[in-house]
Amino acid sequence: MNVLEVFVGSPRGLNLRNVLWHGFAAPHEVPAKYCSAMVLLTAGLGQLLKRYLRHAERALPRRPPLALTRVGDLSVFPGVTHEVLSVLEELTKKSTFILRIMLPYWELALIKFKSHRFADCAMLLLMQLETGLRTVFATINKCPRRLLTAESTALYTTFDEILAKHLNDGKVNQLPLFLGEPAMEFLWDFLNHQEGPRVRDRLSHGEVSLPGFPKEITDQLLAFSVVLLLRFVDEDVASVFKEKAAVKSLVRLAEGYSARFHPLARLKKQVLSCERSLRVWPLLPLPEEAARETAGLEGNSETNACNSLILRLTSDLYHHLPENHCVFTGLDNLPIDKCPRLLPELCSIRVPTLFCPRAVLEVLAVLQNIGRRCAQVSRQVAASWEQRHQQWVEKRLRSRQRRNYLCMSSSVKLLSPTLYLILLLIALELVNIHMVHGKNAHEYQQYLKFLKSLLQYTENLAAHTSPEKNKWVETVRLTHTALQKMRAFGEKEQMLMHLAKKPAGEAAP
Prior knowledge:
- This protein has three domains: about 1-55, no CATH class; about 70-255, no CATH class; about 265-280 and about 290-505, no CATH class.
- It has 23 helices and no strands.
- It has helices spanning about 1-10, 15-20, 30-55, 70-75, 80-95, 105-115, 120-140, 160, 175-180, 180-190, 200-205, 215-230, 235-240, 245-255, 265-280, 290-295, 300-320, 340-345, 360-395, 400-430, 440-465, 470-490, 495-500.
- Residues about 505-509 have low confidence and may be disordered.
- This is ER membrane associated RNA degradation.
- Pfam families: DUF4209 (PF13910).
């Protein structure tokens, strides 16, 4: 343990892991004997562990390596071509972003990429991006002493502080203003967001298989490096590079980058995914005989009350569509079944996501849970419908199951517009999410209470529409109660979309 502490533990020792991983050590600054010692130490620990397990008669199963999924969500830039690699090779020699002493690491990263050692390339790039950004961070924030600090007596500067909104002393970090929101969003997506790949953490903790590391992730880091290095060359040199079609495309994509893994971005994707699954419902087959029998179940007073509430609430929501988007004009009388054309437009509106305060993140968390339950209901309805339809056709339904199928058919006609209504509400609240700052503490708690009641409804709906329960009649009662709560809260005009419509003087302090 003492040897481990000296090599990789406390900052009072060599602290090799942090010094190397955070890009403080230049080539040849770490003696080869330290590397040899670490190799022998690792092998020795393996032997000790094996001996202990044998004597203790215990097994220690290997944890399977983590697979980096959602690679498609990461692919903003196209795959790196030979032309882009050539540009990057030239930029590494001309860009002031790279410390000359660190240039061999960049050269090695490109060699590793060409050798299809994508994890090695990614690790080298992450270390050197941190080194370069630390230099910019120290310069922009006028704290040169933070540049090369990797000592036991001072906190050294890493990505965590470089990408933060404030410095440790409470002052505003100037780096985000300098880099711009798109670049910051890219770095947060790759490194920090919980639903993102968190590439740096995964690699540094040995959680991923190095041979199976996705090339697509390394492509993105290389492309981002090209755009970043371009900002640190002379203007005439940069203009020459930007004339190249491949580089021009990378710059355009980088400037238009928006968050992919921020909770708000994930919720937008969730809303659109749920909307696509709801489109399947009208296509679900219904035998002619079942359709006739279902018609006899429709038109009860509670269902009619629900339909009236849906029409009223939908009309109210339409009045809060953004006025500065021409696609939303003249929609006052648009029926709810036309809602699908609105959701993609609403979700395409750019909403700032960098450094969202706690109140915004709390609201997003509840909305995400509501969206998940809506998606669950949609999947369950489609699966149950197909199963019951097949059983009906094959005449395998008992009388009670037959009745249940007819009730489901009737309930679905109510659930479809209800779920669309909820998705529309979520999308409108997302567009106006930062209006949450206009609420005082009491109003904020009341708003959260309303959202949680809506979440409770979707959770109950998911339970009642599950294959285990199949309680379709009860869904009408649940829906009626939920719609009444939506109307009551809407009349108070305390949703975020309502605050966006109020004059500035009417918003709560």
